[in-house]
């Protein structure tokens, strides 16, 4: 019995370890290869650890592709999109969960109904709209369509339903205004939901591709994924050192934040997934 | 002190406010709409309007050149949808996307369930390490991962063919071979997405009461019987959710072929979303909108089908 347990345990660890190697290996190899000169990257047989260690690929990235600008664009768009969603989704989520107003049910159903709409359906009319507003190739054009997302409303409403009505009623009896109740009593209780919304919105924006690909038309407005994709697609013989350095620059900030905050990430995903 | 005076004061105050302020229901109605308005305005303009406009556009011959002269646009009824049937590129894209979903979704669910079961089997050490590692690709940019995978699959410099060469096998040109490009992208998608399902399934597994396993063990059930007759039935709502979410995502395959193969070779990795994007690029807005509605219908249809097949059988 004990011996069988040991065998099972060793087998389990072997399988899990192999799985981990398969999943994390490509990341490690990309990071290591980005620090090799192009000739070593293409050498057969390949080296695992860099024989010649160089940061030239990263230097090129800074000078040739205007990556600092793309990095700044991605950050600006992601931060403003996240702030907008935190504000608008929590306001509507609160109204849907706790306030009685005419049209509440209909509004909730319409918002919920668009949850499943693929971005491919909306992007052509969105593009026509944004170009009529004169916002093509501007931060406004990049941000506005994503400021108010149905998923955020759904998340906030579900969480707010769990806050007891008595708390809000008590504040009303004490004469607090609705905005004051929301800001002073309700929002401070929404920490976990707001954290989940922040993480998911920021990630979605940082990794978003289709919309910035269509709306950003000159290099000074490219976000990181757009700059990376257009550069690597535009080449016939790809310069691996350079594009891998670019990929690492896109991946690394997210990987670091994820590893540091992994508990919040995974808890948020699991709870939103099950609701 | 406040609590002592409150009961005495409350009725008087209620009477006073009834006169001074609008009635309670009206006040809450106004507050509700005040809270709802910022989101609703943005939502109507950038979400609801485009959803409707896309449907209308799909019934017209709108092209990019018509944006300055909207009056030149004509209604063409269902012509765009009829044109779809004769569009061999669309048929190829639809077939590729269907293969991607039908093969990719079950593989992703199986990998996610295997990882979740392994991590849930009483093994405590390093659990966080495995969870974080397996989840890593989920949070990272598809474009960046596609760049990394293009490198992994490179026939000369790639890690995979280097590994094959080490054991004396000459690896194929994964992304350059029409028969291997789509399977390669499927493997990459499973690699990237199973971690999400693992987290969802793990939460579902932990919600299954331990007594069920204990009593079945007393009845002599083995590991496999437990998995088959306790885990899978108890996990069915979670499996359904995972299947629906993964299918919705996989039906929209786009970034991977764009970065890794540009839809080739010979359209073997062209997806429906990629076809829509191309048609948009050619300026065929009306036609692109029609294809996008077909994709939308497929998403709704597949979700309904899964709910019918896997939903609660009461």
Distance between the termini of chain A: 40 Å
Beta percentage of chain A is: under 5%
Largest sheet of chain A: none
Q: Give the structural class of chain A.
A: mainly alpha
Quickly give the CATH architecture of the domain at 65-234 in chain A: Orthogonal Bundle
Shape by Cα distribution of chain B: globular
Mean pLDDT of chain B: 85
β-strand amount of chain B: under 5%
List the helices and strands and how they pair.
The complex is a heterodimer of chains A (275) and B (314).
Chain A: H1 2-33, H2 38-41, H3 56-64, H4 67-98, H5 104-113, H6 119-132, H7 139-143, H8 150-160, H9 165-173, H10 178-186, H11 191-207, H12 210-215, H13 224-233, H14 240-260, H15 262-274
Chain B: H1 2-20, H2 24-57, H3 79-86, H4 88-120, H5 127-139, H6 142-152, H7 159-166, H8 181-206, H9 210-218, H10 223-234, H11 236-251, H12 255-260, H13 272-281, H14 285-310
Helix pairs in contact in B: 4-8, 4-11, 4-13, 5-8, 8-11, 11-14, 13-14
List keywords for this structure.
A: 275 residues, mainly alpha, MetI-like fold, 15 helices, 0% strand, B: 314 residues, 2 domains, 14 helices, 74% helix, disordered N terminus
What does this structure look like?
- The complex is a heterodimer of chains A (275) and B (314).
- In chain A, helix 13 packs antiparallel against helix 14 (240-260).
- In chain A, 73% of the residues lie in helices and 0% in strands.
- The longest helix of chain A has 32 residues, at 2-33.
- Chain A is mainly α.
- Chain A has a domain at 65-234: MetI-like fold, CATH 1.10.3720.
- Chain B has 314 residues and is mostly helical.
- Chain B folds into two domains: 23-50; 88-310, Orthogonal Bundle (MetI-like fold), CATH 1.10.3720.
- Helix content of chain B is 74%, strand content 0%.
- In chain B, helix 4 runs antiparallel to helix 11 (236-251), helix 4 crosses helix 13 and helix 5 crosses helix 8.
- The model of chain B is unreliable at 1-19 (pLDDT under 50).
- The interface between A and B is large, with 99 and 99 residues.
- Chain A: It is found in: Cell membrane.
- Chain A: It is a multi-pass membrane protein.
- Chain A: The chain crosses the membrane at residues 12-32, 70-94, 106-127, 139-160, 181-204, 240-261.
- Chain A: Belongs to the binding-protein-dependent transport system permease family.
